[in-house]
Write a structure and sequence with these properties.
heterodimer, A: about 90 residues, mainly alpha, about 0% strand, B: mainly alpha, two-stranded antiparallel ribbon, cytoplasm (chain A), Putative matrilin, coiled-coil trimerization domain, protein BRICK1 (chain A)
């Protein structure tokens, strides 16, 4: 009887260890996926920041060009004699 | 037909615009919902973790609680990945759309800049063109270089100078000019008194290679002539000087010119009178003998 009780205990311990290893494997998979999600979020943040920076640069360039054009048009409209000789 | 097409186009444009606006509103609503779910996912995960912890410690069926917890975690991860993917895709598409929208006004602006540059170049070229016309270039008169090295400014001036020279030669003694340049005077005299040339007209006819020997131009005639006059006045007698220049030395040149003109006039009058006489004679002979040979001869001569 003692032998049988010892064997069943050993089997239970083995089952518990296997279940513990399975749980550890599951947790490692979940943590790996969470890390992948984190990496994706970091990469997405970087790409989004770069795109936003390029967009901001383009908008700044457009704004400066528009200001320059406005100044040039204002200068040309203020001095119509520059274009009067073409008529 | 065109009106129908235009009306259909005009009516379809607002419909498409409203449809696009509806789609855009739906997408924005979905995007905001996804963002809110992502924000609430943290609280849900924390609450689920507390619940499973309590249930694992209280209930006897711990294996069932663990399996339920695993399923929940898997679903939560999958849900999070889906939400993050959709949000990232929408954000990426939104950014690309905005970049493309920015590129369009950039192209328009570059077009405007190019137009402005073209206008500026055109105005610059126009100004340079007008400025080039505003410059007064120096005018150079025609200059004829005579073989002797002397230059005359214009043809009329050279002819006038030769007339003056002829008048001087006809009005004055040739000996005085021969003192300065005998070869020139002889050539000029031969030119002016050649039988082929008509009286009063000058011809630029060369006589052999004697023109190359001419060293003094007609422009220089008055200056050596004055010197020659002085020399002649000193060398020759006073009577010969008085014959040549009856007036004062200051009016010497004008007197020679006027003498030359009067001589031409008298010659012309004599020629005309002789022509008229011959014409009248021809008319008389035609009336008498009715023979037109004399008239024809006269006409042939003239």
């Amino acid at each position: 009887m003692a032998r049988a009780g010892g064997i069943t205990n050993a089997v239970n311990v083995g089952i518990a260890v296997q279940a513990d290893w399975e749980n550890r494997e599951f947790i490692s998979h979940i943590s790996l996926n969470v890390r992948r999600l984190f990496d994706f979020l970091v990469q997405f943040e970087a790409t989004t920041k770069s795109k936003l920076a390029s967009l901001n640069e383009k908008l700044d360039t457009l704004e400066r060009k528009l200001e320059l054009l406005e100044v040039q048009v204002g200068t040309a409209s203020a001095n119509p004699s520059l274009f009067a000789r073409d008529v | 037909m065109q009106k129908m097409l235009s009306s259909s186009l005009v009516s379809s444009a607002p419909k498409e615009a409203s449809h696009n606006d509806e789609l855009f509103m739906k997408q924005t609503v979905l995007f905001s919902e996804n963002l809110n779910e992502l924000k609430n996912l943290r609280k849900q995960l924390y609450s689920a973790a507390e619940y499973f912890e309590i249930s694992y410690s209280k209930e006897d069926q711990k294996q069932f609680v663990v399996e339920t917890l695993k399923d929940y975690v898997i679903k939560a991860v999958i849900n999070t990945v889906d939400h993050l993917g959709s949000v990232a895709y929408k954000v990426d598409g939104f950014l690309d759309e905005k970049v493309s929208e920015v590129s369009e006004p950039e192209l328009r602006l570059s077009c405007l800049e190019q137009r402005l540059r073209t206008c500026r170049d055109f105005s610059t070229q126009r100004g340079l063109f007008q400025h080039s016309f505003a410059i007064n270039f120096p005018k150079h008169h025609k200059r004829y270089i005579l073989p002797g090295g002397a230059t005359t400014h214009t043809v009329g001036q050279s002819a006038l100078i030769y007339h003056n020279a002829q008048g001087d030669l006809s009005g004055t003694n040739t000996a005085t000019t021969r003192e300065t340049s005998p070869t020139v005077v002889s050539e000029e005299y031969s030119l002016m008194h050649s039988p082929e040339s008509s009286p009063g007209a000058f011809q630029f006819t060369r006589i052999g290679s004697k023109h190359e020997k001419r060293t003094v131009s007609p422009l220089r005639f008055p200056i050596p002539r004055c010197g020659s006059v002085k020399r002649s006045s000193t060398l020759n007698s006073s009577s010969s000087a008085k014959l040549r220049y009856p007036s004062e030395p200051r009016t010497r040149r004008s007197a020679s010119l006027s003498l030359y003109n009067e001589g031409d006039r008298t010659k012309d009058i004599e020629v005309d009178s002789s022509k008229n006489k011959r014409f009248y004679k021809a008319l008389l002979s035609m009336g008498k003998s009715r023979n037109d040979t004399a008239l024809y001869k006269y006409l042939d001569k003239n």
